[in-house]
Amino acid sequence: MSRQSDIYQRVRQNPKFTELVTRRGRLGALLSFIVLGSYYAFVMLVAFAPDVLRIPLHQGGMLTIGVPIGAALIIGSWLLTGYYVSKANKDFDRISHELVKEVS
């Protein structure tokens, strides 16, 4: 067996690799569900209750409630992306470095 395939085998058998894959997958799935669910809810609101989004922010105003809701969806997606990047840089990279040290 080659040295490279031996290293891959040790990585796959290491409990830290399993922890890393599990934690990263769960966080990614959760954040994806939140973002996709939010956008889906917004589209359903547009499709089935458009009058809700036509409500003006203040009496006599031209800006409707739909604009800040749409902006909040976009900003929320950015914030969740930032949270994932922060978590990846802090926790997932630490686990990756520990894993590399253990199998090298």
UniProtKB/TrEMBL annotation:
PANTHER family: INNER MEMBRANE PROTEIN YJCH. This is Uncharacterized membrane protein (DUF485 family). It comes from the Bacteria. Keywords: Membrane, Transmembrane, Transmembrane helix. The chain crosses the membrane at residues 27-49, 61-85. The keyword Manganese does not apply. Pfam families: DUF485. It comes from Rivihabitans pingtungensis.
